[in-house]
Amino acid sequence: QVQLVESGGGLVQAGGSLRLSCAASGRTFSNYDFSTYGMGWFRQAPGKEREFVAAINWSGRRIYDEDSVEGRFTISRDNAKNTVYLQMNSLKPEDTAVYYCAANQNSALTIRGDLYDYWGQGTQVTVSS
């Protein structure tokens, strides 16, 4: 079993930045295990469905939802720390949501939430206008 814990959310003014972190752990979960996982970030705004934001695979290849991210967000990972990050710049009020980290064991680089095996509890990001 893998636990994912997000942090770094908060309240920020429009145009500001935040960096979200997601730390992975487990009783027998190693750095090597983490390095093989595909990792993703999703978000869910009030009254809306969960949507894909960004993903990164074992080799560092990345994909983004360009419609919403528009080059403002960057996903990265530090396998030595079992952590994935989401750097968010030029934040807009429409970025307000709960942000979730997710992991898949198949090293998949995918936007599909149903292909992720583990999810964090989420961290709130609120962008004021």
Characterization of this structure:
With 129 residues, the protein is mainly beta. It contains two helices and eleven strands; from the N terminus they run βββαβββαβββββ. Strands 2, 4, 5, 6, 9, 10 and 11 form a seven-stranded mixed β-sheet that branches. Strands 1-3-8-7 form a four-stranded antiparallel β-sheet, with no helix packed on it. It is globular, with a radius of gyration of 14 Å. The mean pLDDT is 94.
- Report the total helices: 2
In total, the number of strands is: 11
Radius of gyration: 14 Å
- The chain-level structural class is mainly beta
What's the gist of this structure?
The chain is mainly beta. 8% of the residues lie in helices and 47% in strands.
Task: Explain the layout of strands and helices.
Elements lengths: L2 E5 L2 E4 L4 E8 L5 H6 L1 E7 L6 E6 L5 E3 L1 H4 L3 E6 L4 E6 L8 E8 L13 E2 L3 E6 L1
Parallel strand pairs: 2-11
Antiparallel strand pairs: 1-3, 3-8, 4-5, 4-9, 5-6, 7-8, 9-10, 9-11
